[in-house]
Amino acid sequence: MKPQSDPQFASVDDLRQTLSDLLLSGPANSHDSIFSHLPPPHLLPPEPLSSSVYHSQSELIRRLSSLRRR
Fold this sequence. Notes:
mainly alpha
């Protein structure tokens, strides 16, 4: 569903009321209809940890482990 034109709101209260009316009177997936004009998010695969991060995390684990043994 494509909007016919960009709505103009006289005030923030007008915007709030319109959004409230849409959410209360719309179907269960009102949020989907509000944001349906947006493109899907571009999800990037997680990047592997760099060796420096791995090293610092390993060092932290070793220190915590040695503290628990005391």
